[in-house]
Specification:
The protein is mainly alpha-helical. It folds into two domains: 5-25 and 179-240, no CATH class; 31-162, Helix Hairpins, CATH 1.10.287.1700. Helices cover 76% and strands 5% of the residues. It has five helices and four strands. The chain has helices at 5-29, 32-87, 94-175, 180-193, 214-222; strands at 197-201, 204-205, 229-230, 237-240. Strands 2-1-4-3 form a four-stranded mixed sheet. The longest helix is centred in the middle third of the chain and has 82 residues, at 94-175. The radius of gyration is 42 Å and the shape is rod-shaped. The relative contact order is 0.15. Residues 204-238 form the C4-type zinc ribbon domain. Residues 63-97 are annotated as: Disordered. Pfam families: CT398_CC (PF24481), Zn_ribbon_9 (PF02591).
Length: 246
Amino acid sequence: MKAAPEHQLRLLDVQQADTAIARAEHRARNLPEAEEVRELDARIAELRDRAVAARTALSDIDREQRKAESDVDQVRSRADRDRARLDAGQVSSPKELEGLQSEIASLQRRQAELEEVVLEVMERREAAEAEAASVTAELERAEAGREAAEERRSAAALEIEDERATERDRRERLAKEVPEDLLALYTKLRDQYGIGAAALHYGRCEGCKLALSTAELGRIRQAPADEVLRCEDCRRILVRTTESGL
């Protein structure tokens, strides 16, 4: 294949634009901000589960507390009725009086036990309420952090897209200056290797980074300026420049 030296040099500019586009696309796929958003999404999901569990536990303890307090009220009411009978002198039989006094004493003990249960439930409720508040606050912080990370991700993605659009426009302009057959060969090689054209830089191919043999360099020195060369190792288009060391 033949192509004017200036067209071959322009191919390096096309490759530079393609590399910049590929680099921008890689950055877009691997944004640190996107990873941060994914991590925060996972954290938020975990915290929401914990928040539901904390609210459920608090609701269960509330029911337990209401029942315990109701039990205390029932025992207290019964004891009050017994005392009222006792104070009103409604019991005349010594045996019945002894039984009533014994029942009042038993109810007092039972009330004390139930009040201990209420205190224990109240302590557990206080701990559960603190846990629910802590999880809720942590969830709010995570959601706020996620919102900020999403804003940073959007800003970074927009910046990359602007860069990619600029390079695509530049690439389109440059490609118009390259002959169709040369551009087609370059495109084929770029699709295969990621890099379709590379400069010969002081005897080394910038595509594969390997030094060319003495024999190959001798052949290149003898080749016409418009001959399209290929690297003997990586088979990419090899473009001669003022820094080729020939």
